[in-house]
Amino acid sequence: MRVLVLGGTGPSGVLIIRELLAVDHTVVVYARSPDKLPEDILSHRLVIIIKGTFEESDESSLLKAMEGVHAVLSALGPTTDLKKAPFYPSNTPLATAYTRIISTMHKMDVKRLIALGTASIKDPNDKFNFAFWVLVNGVKTVAYNAYKDVVAIGDTIRGDGKDLLWTIVRVPLLTSADTKEQIAGYVGDGKVTTSLPRAAFAAFVMTELEKNEWVRKAPLVSAP
């Protein structure tokens, strides 16, 4: 399988790439700064690097990255650095990027999209849970523009990408714990918790790529 990875230079993206390479998928990494990738990925025989952005002027680069791919896996997300939160742009840059990504998928007839989201993206299956209420409203208070962008990502995928085979993998607080155990459900279902190791996020993405159990759904994935 040939897979396009977006957000591949971040910690979650790197883990997704390594999961893909472990089962011999060809990985196309589209990134603004591909030199940030670890050497084992940069030099891998199954990795294709294409440098580019999601600006309109870079449309040809994104089209090239999308050529012949079977699925798009995205770990794109706002910075989690609270010091940078007050300076986050108010014009929903990631949602705008997804508009271009989805448009390019349509042009290149790519149907499958698995994208990172958070609990800020609501789902009709969610129920009230105090811990998640605190988590989401905390983000909304201290990083409103980032919160707004994440919500807009969900709207864009469900709207512009309504005909795609999309899955929004909503995550709570991401940790660096070295475990791949995870459960999937919805906020307030009595199962999901408020943390998830990045390694477990990457493992869930791989399972979903193979099994397609959550197509056109937005599960909340967490540690057990």
Q: What's the helix and strand layout?
A:
Layout: E1 2-6, H1 11-22, E2 26-31, H2 39-42, E3 47-51, H3 59-66, E4 71-74, H4 93-108, E5 112-118, H5 130-142, H6 144-159, E6 165-171, E7 173-175, E8 183-185, E9 195-197, H7 198-211, E10 220-222
Parallel strand pairs: 1-2, 1-4, 2-3, 4-5, 5-6, 7-9
Antiparallel strand pairs: 8-10
Helix pairs in contact: 1-7, 3-4, 4-6, 5-6
Quickly list its features:
globular, 224 residues, 6-stranded parallel β-sheet
Main sheet attributes: strand count, strand direction, barrel closure:
6 strands, parallel
Rg is 16 Å
Question: What's the CATH superfamily, by name?
Answer: NAD(P)-binding Rossmann-like Domain
Shape: globular
